[in-house]
Design brief:
About 50% of the residues lie in helices and about 15% in strands. The protein is built from 19 helices and 14 strands. It has helices at about 50-65, 80-85, 85-100, 105-120, 160-165, 175-190, 190-195, 210-220, 230-240, 260-275, 285-300, 305-315, 320-335, 345-355, 365-375, 385-395, 410-430, 450-455, 460-475, and strands at about 1-5, 10-20, 25-30, 70-75, 100-105, 130-135, 140-145, 150-155, 200-205, 225-230, 280, 440, 445-450, 480-485. Helix 4 (about 105-120) packs across helix 11 (about 285-300).
Length: about 475
Amino acid sequence: MYAAVDLGSNSFRLHVGRFDGDAMRIVKSAREPIRLGAGLDADGNLTPAAIQSAIVALSRFRTILGQYALDSVRVVATNTMRIAKNAGQFLPELEKAIGYPIEIISGEEEGRLIYMGVAKVLANPAENRLVIDIGGGSTEVIFGHGQEILKVASFSVGTVKQSLSFFPEGRMSRESFEASILSARSHFEDAAPFYQTCNWTRVYGSSGSVRSIAEVMARNKIGDGSLSLTNLEILKDLCIQVGQINQLELAGIKPERTAMVVGGLAILIGVMQELNVVQVQTIEAGLRMGVIWDLHLRATQHDRREQAVLNVSAAFQVEPQRAKFVVELAHIMYEQLKPSADTYKAQLLWAARLHEVGLIVSQTGYHKHGAYLVEYADMQGFTTREQRNMSKMILSQKGNLRKVQESLLDADFAKAVLALRLAVLFMHTRLELSLADVRVRMKSKIELEIKGEWLTQHPTLSYWLEKEHEAWSEINIDFVVRVTP
């Protein structure tokens, strides 16, 4: 059983799902309409009131999650948390409230998860499809074939800002609607040529905003009830005729969501006009379903992060045999170091595989270039925190350790860094050693056992081990080498 929590700009939502043969059954859903995106102040910081609302909502979610025997839980935060300048300051409070780590995902990763959720519930595996998801803070547009994602883009236009910016005090006029639609179109125009040439069969709307608009169309019998551009224009004209959001009475829409639906309507018209979309079909799937399926696939079949690492390795021309040696030796030494948990194990092995990506930039300081590339590359399936941890490991593979000294206070992270540094050191010696002959321990001090013949085979090994001793001594950790016959 899996749980997905989506900290959106408009609402916080929760799904608990159980895999049932070949389908994912949602057994519990919850929603907290806190409108986090409206809590950003003029400086781009979330206000104390918005943060407190988020804490209260997540505390309620924690109670719900505690009622289920869950195999895995993933909490993802989207646009508002991506852009809030003070997100890092209050993130620990939110994590404490819900009891799980919170991952601030990129717009592109959000789009990939949305498409995964949609593709998993559609029966046609050969269909070319466009998926549009209009959220509170951003809009994702994804083109794919069956389960395969061919193009994903995230645009910084969402219902919260659109509603607040173009319909102040709830006033709806023809001028404000046209300005809102043109503003929305401006976000999509650079990407439009690609999407216009895609040979899609259907266009799906996966967000709550699009589904709310579709429900309004159907229940109020606007046009033929479908989500066509013609019918959207009719709904827009009806809004203009009413003139005030708080006076807009339509079946299928709750009063507190009316403003968001009006903002979403302007965006939907804009994206459909810009991409030459005539009609959209709604679907009850999206980000949360994608997160749940991703958890299931990680546990049972294929972790998308493995493919992302392979893609980056190929793109930056990493030498596979050198990487393979470092991965294998780092794995062996990390197991010998006996970390308290497996938190960093996978990240260490991925960092080991990517430790030389910076060589494509320069031989000098390649570890610094590699750290930058790994932290900021678009790597599907990875969270910002995971990429940052891998970046720190790659940065710390050589040279002084003061640059990551604070992170080394985490004993398991320090063990991961030690394992990677030693693996890289031995790889550079080009010794034909048996990996099983390496022995290392780390408690109050580091103890490394090596064979005396290794020093004979590679005279500079003693020099590099002395440099390693100096690096750890600088941060007050003893590094002792014991030579065995």
